[in-house]
UniProtKB/TrEMBL annotation:
Residues 155-176 have a biased composition (Polar residues). This is Major facilitator superfamily domain containing 6-like. The keyword Transmembrane applies. Residues 207-216 have a biased composition (Basic and acidic residues). It is a multi-pass membrane protein. InterPro entries: MFS_assoc_dom, MFS_MFSD6, MFS_trans_sf. It comes from Cynoglossus semilaevis. Residues 183-197 have a biased composition (Low complexity). Signal peptide: none annotated.
């Protein structure tokens, strides 16, 4: 007879908390600073918003699908370990892309070391364009373009009086002119032909060979080379944008299955041990891990030099810390408590949760609010560090700002009881959105490196209050077993759908009007919605579901003493009556 394996709930929760802490710490080392790295590479705000929006939308679609497939094939542990290792490998590809040289922005450390360089990245040539369109030469109809590098301009200024230099420059410009342009005079054409340099002859010969090869290609080859040629002639900024977009989508594709798969496995494990009420304790470790990672890597990077050995920028430390912590979390995934209950399929749990949200007017208002708050939070996460950097903040200020906001969010449960006595959950939801609008308005008028910290300390009354109101709404519309799926619907609306739409919209607004005006626009939109939300809640009747378990407990405790024993013991009599009949029947058969 096989012995029943004992389940240690405390050990399971400790392992799950450790794994959640390490994964969140890895995210905190990189994700808050990722848009700042894109800015240093030269991406515009609109491009940055599209990249971050694409990552949110990929996670929205792929997370539930990957979790369902891993459960169906019983490969949860393989998926979790593979996500950690593959994400650490894919994210390092972002370090291989060189800066585009356009719209680049250096940190305060780089600006102090490169104050003599007006524009461009390290090692880039400085391009100087003269105000004069062109300069005439001695030969009629021949000009020299004045767009040269700094070294060439100095040498050109020293030898501008040399007749040989004038003739050589005229020959190069004449040979680079299109063939369809006629020569100014026959004498000038014969002079250029006779004194043509070997380099010009080689270029002309190469152009002739490429023309012949283009004529000999098939239509399929022509279309293929036209597409590659279009990518080749694209400016460096758009080339960098598409490379980063592809890499970030691949990175999110391997990271997205991790959280949902581990979450499902842990819940099934606790549900099997009849301890599903302890499931929500891992949420605290997620916030603490992200805060610790952001503050730790910010402090570490701020202590380093601007350039590491091997001409590596110090922003690469964020990627190295992410990979190190992700690989460190892989052994914890081996002992992660997971359980697969094949008898209880929950494939349609999300569909039922969406039906519950759609069937309640107040739940729909909560869903729209979480969608708008998610868009606003994405705008803050993507461009707050840009605003802080413009006012002289370093990685230390940024990391502490992110950590303070997360620590503040964890403190709202301490004051939730007092707040619930004064305000209903609907008004707390509207109040959280209103506080977030005030935070965005404050972010638009920052004046120094530390000026963002006061606004971050009140995050407990914005994001913390919002998620507390969402939990109360989940209890109102769903049974205890379905509450987790309803909360997932709200989190998907906030973190992924709202985050994707908000990232794209905020990027275009920031590029058109600036980051400060983008924050002001977000504040105005949230304020308008808060007023509409209060009016709609006032007009919407409150519908609470009937909690049958509480009703039965209340009926038992409030039972009247005047009830007869015959009414109380009806179940015992009903069970004893067929037993006697069966006994008599057996005697007759004998």
């Amino acid at each position: 007879m096989s012995r029943t394996r004992q389940i240690d709930i405390q050990r399971a929760l400790a392992l799950a908390g450790l794994f959640t802490f390490l994964c969140s710490c890895a995210k905190g080392c990189l994700l808050p600073f990722l848009t700042l790295y894109f800015r240093q590479l030269g991406l515009s705000p609109a491009m940055t918003g599209m990249v971050m929006g694409a990552s949110h939308l990929v996670s929205l679609v792929w997370s539930p699908l990957a979790s369902l497939l891993s459960k169906h094939y019983n490969k949860r542990r393989v998926v979790i370990g593979g996500s950690l290792v593959c994400s650490a490998a894919v994210v390092l590809v972002l370090l291989l892309f060189p800066p585009s040289g356009e719209n680049m922005h250096f940190s305060s450390c780089s600006l102090s070391n490169h104050s003599s360089r007006p524009t461009g990245g390290p090692g880039d040539k400085l391009l100087i364009t003269s105000k004069e369109p062109e300069t005439s030469l001695s030969s009629p109809g021949v000009t020299v373009a004045t767009e040269t590098t700094a070294e060439e301009k100095s040498s050109l200024g020293n030898t501008s009086t040399s007749p040989h230099t004038r003739t050589g420059s005229a020959e190069v410009n004449e040979t680079s002119r299109p063939a369809a342009e006629p020569s100014t005079s026959s004498s000038a054409g014969s002079h250029n032909t006779s004194s043509e340099s070997p380099a010009a002859v080689a270029r002309r010969k190469r152009s002739y060979l490429e023309t012949r090869q283009q004529e000999d290609r098939t239509p399929e080859e022509v279309r293929r080379f036209e597409f590659l040629g279009y990518l080749k002639v694209m400016d460096p900024q758009h080339q960098l944008f598409f490379l980063i977009l592809i890499t970030v989508v691949a990175w999110e594709s391997v990271w997205a299955p991790l959280e949902w798969t581990a979450d499902d496995g842990l819940y099934d494990y606790l549900d099997f041990a009849d301890a599903s009420d302890r499931y929500s304790s891992t949420t605290l470790w997620s916030l603490l891990g992200t805060a610790f990672g952001a503050a730790g890597v910010g402090l570490l990077v701020s202590q380093l030099n601007c350039t590491l050995p091997g001409e590596t920028p110090r922003s690469a430390v964020h990627f190295y810390c992410y990979c190190s912590v992700a690989v460190l979390a892989a052994p914890a995934a081996v002992y992660l408590p997971l359980y697969l209950n094949k008898k209880r399929e929950r494939a349609n749990g999300l569909l039922k949760a969406m039906q519950l949200v759609r069937g309640s007017p107040r739940a729909l208002l909560c869903a729209v609010t979480t969608l708008m708050v998610g868009a606003a939070v994405a705008a803050v996460e993507n461009f707050l560090l840009w605003q802080m950097q413009d006012h002289g903040a370093t990685e230390l200020h940024m990391g502490l700002a992110v950590a303070v906001a997360l620590f503040s969010q964890t403190t709202f449960p301490l004051v939730a009881d007092r707040v619930s006595r004064l305000l209903s959950s609907g008004r707390v939801l509207a109040g959280g959105a209103a506080v977030l609008s005030l935070q965005c308005l404050y972010y638009s008028v920052l004046w120094g490196p530390w000026s963002a910290l006061p606004a971050q300390t009140v995050t407990c009354f914005s994001s913390g209050a919002l998620w507390w109101a969402v939990d109360v709404q989940c209890e109102d519309v769903a049974t205890p077993e379905a509450q987790r799926h309803v909360r997932r619907v709200y989190s998907a609306l906030t973190l992924h759908l709202g985050g994707g739409l908000g990232s794209v919209a905020a990027g275009f607004v920031a590029e058109r009007f600036g980051v400060a005006w983008m924050f002001r626009g977000v504040a105005v939109a949230l304020t308008v919605w808060c007023v509409c939300l209060l009016l709609l809640q006032w007009k919407t009747p409150r519908q609470r579901r009937i909690n049958y378990s509480r009703l039965l407990v209340a009926n038992v405790s409030e039972a009247s003493d005047s009830e007869s024993e015959q009414e109380r013991d009806w179940l015992d009599k009903a069970m004893q009556e067929p037993r006697g009949k069966n006994h008599c029947g057996r005697k007759l058969n004998y």
